Amino acid sequence: MNYYEVNFDGLVGPTHNYAGLSYGNVASKSNANKISNPKQAALQGLEKMWHLVQLGLHQGVVAPNARPDLITLRACGFTGSDSAVISKAAKVQPQLLKACYSASSMWTANAATVSPSCDSVDGKLHITPANLNNKLHRAIEAPQTSQILKAMFSDPDFFSHHDALPQHPLYGDEGAANYTRLADSYGHQGLALFVYGEDAHTQVKPQLFPARQTRQASEAVARSHQLDPQHTLFIQQNPEVIDQGVFHNDVIAIGNENVFLFHEQAFYQQQSVIEQIKAGYQGDRPLHLIEVKNADISVEDAVKSYVFNSQLVSLPSGGMAVIAPGECQMVGKVEQYLSALCQASNPVSEVIYMDLKQSMQNGGGPACLRLRVTLSEQELSAVNQSCLLNQRLYDQLRNWINTHYRDRLSEADLADPGLMTECQTALDELTTILNLGSVYSFQQA
């Protein structure tokens, strides 16, 4: 049976704004309070998805969380009508209102960790939504993200859904941004790499920025997903690069099938990590471990360009392509490295640059925008077909974005209850387009 890796990209929500909420994310903080363009952001993301379809790949779409999050605002003591809640919060707790308006669910690499059926003991695909408890604006996502994923992967014969881990720092879980799977091919038993920033039992941790993923969280997910310990590695990220703005592993490393591209400073005790990966990988095709030297791309340039936050995809025609943010072309050494990578002896044969400036300015590149899901043919058929991108859905979504999204959004606009009404109208229509049912609380009132 054929297996495919399907990228499920988050649709950028209509409240995309630059609030600078993510401490430890250099781009997010440096662009705080700039004027955003939600319409352009959503269209840029959609164009990336469509480009992958045109390459012959399967591509899915994930609906955004509803914003503003009125449930959180009410839980924090704001009462009255929905409009009154927005107005009161804007005056008394503007930072909380910004968190409740965040469109950060667009970065579906953090939505969940997904383990394929060919890796699990029970032969089912396992999904655990990330609790994202390090940041308030993200910690409120898990319940709704879980509902949306259940509406997309609803068949219990194929898909097993788990609750998010406990909302406690010991179990900080940031999802697939810290998970990589290496395999001879998508349908073969893979080597699961869980990368964490901090282990409660050691003192090895960053000093400036938080380590958002814990070893304890990674181990809990692996247990729930019934992964074979012989095919699972827990690897610590280098705390020194976390303090330089590498807040997730997918900002410093990327893997696909039998290729793993990573910076020479990516991991703690890196030589030992490399040996563990070599010992754990199984397959007929050779494993390509490509260590990028600091002399070729510095950590600073990696963070500036998000080169490791590119997507690495297997092309139906053979070889692999790097789907890179256009910012990589603005850093000479990065563009030179990617060009040389395609000429070297490895499966990477092409680099495709995409314009994702709106997302990049908020701290998320191509890899942040997608959740990777390995599916058999049967499992792919069991997915909600309305969420798989084709020409018809692409046209529908373009029209939907152009109809409902603003092309300018400032912090002051968040105090306008009219924005809430616009968003609810848009998302109500989207659930019909994607055949999700009433996944939003405002639809259930």
UniProtKB/TrEMBL annotation:
* Residue spans crossing the bilayer: none
| UniProt EC number | 3.5.3.23
As its record notes, the protein acts as a catalyst of: N(2)-succinyl-L-arginine + 2 H2O + 2 H(+) = N(2)-succinyl-L-ornithine + 2 NH4(+) + CO2
Under the heading SUPFAM superfamilies, the entry gives: Pentein (SSF55909)
From the UniProt record, which GO molecular function terms apply?
Answer: N-succinylarginine dihydrolase activity
Tell me which Pfam families the record gives. AstB
Q: In which pathway does it act?
A: Amino-acid degradation; L-arginine degradation via AST pathway; L-glutamate and succinate from L-arginine: step 2/5
Which terms does the UniProt entry file under GO BP? L-arginine catabolic process to L-glutamate; L-arginine catabolic process to succinate
Q: Return the broad EC class.
A: hydrolase
Give the keywords, sorted.
Arginine metabolism, Hydrolase
Q: Where does substrate bind?
A: 19-28, 110, 137-138, 212, 250, 362
Role summary? Catalyzes the hydrolysis of N(2)-succinylarginine into N(2)-succinylornithine, ammonia and CO(2).
The record's subunit annotation is: Homodimer.
Return the protein name: N-succinylarginine dihydrolase
